[in-house]
Amino acid sequence: MKNKYHAFFICMAFTSMALTGCDNEPPTISEQSKISIKESEKQNAIVADVSKNSPQLNTTFHFNGKSVTIPCRFSEFSNIELDTSMLIPANDNDVYGAIYKADERIGRVILKNFDIDDKDVSDNVVTYLELNPDIGFDKIDFTYQGFTHATSKEQIIDAFGTPDEEYSNNVCYHLKNYGYIEFEFSKEFSEIESIKIKSES
Fold first, then answer.
1. Rounded to whole angstroms, what are the CA distances from 16 to 23, 54, 92, 117, 158?
2. N or C: which end of the chain has fewer CB within 10 A?
3. Do 108 and 79 meet the contact criterion of CB atoms below 8 Å apart?
């Protein structure tokens, strides 16, 4: 038993020397190595956060002849109507409803602080836009960062990088302030079938 304890302490002494060096002090890292490590960490942080800081990945798009950024006033959509007869309550006083162009449904929005007694929604703030037009994207004036509906999944990923989420026919990129951009593609991944844009600030 005595020999086992003796062997154990010798082993521990060698292990301690190996970890701390012969002078019993932790090994030092050269200044050049420290700089290299810091630069590597900085580069990794930039790569990890590229989707959230990319000037391309934001909530600005071209719609009905002008540039619009979510959140925005409903009036900025120009010639688009909200179906106030079938609104679904969302968080707080927000509502979720369908939007129409020339009597054709083109998607949905979420409006903040909706007053049920006020039928004029022009000043209400839109925090979410989903475009999924029954008439097809080619019938509406919409582009996102220069991309039309005739854009493939591969083109989106080439432009914006690896998605933060990917499922079924959808790819999603997270933005700051809990916002996101989500593209849904056709089964062949050759066209965009719907786009969802959300941001509250």
1. 11, 48, 61, 77, 51
2. N
3. no
Number of folded domains that form the chain? 2
Same-domain check for residues 25 and 69:
no
Q: Are 67 and 94 in contact (CB under 8 A)?
A: no
The answer to whether residues 28 and 9 belong to one domain is yes
131 and 69 within one domain: yes
Burial class of residue 148 in the structure, from the number of CB atoms within 10 Å of its CB (0-12 exposed, 13-18 middle, 19+ buried): middle
* 94 and 169 housed in the same domain: yes
pLDDT in tens, the chain (201 residues): 444 444 433 333 433 433 333 333 434 445 555 555 455 454 444 334 444 445 578 999 999 999 999 999 999 998 999 998 889 988 888 999 999 998 999 999 999 988 877 778 899 999 999 999 998 888 899 999 999 999 999 999 999 999 999 999 999 999 987 899 999 999 999 999 999 999 987
Q: Do 14 and 108 belong together in one domain?
A: no
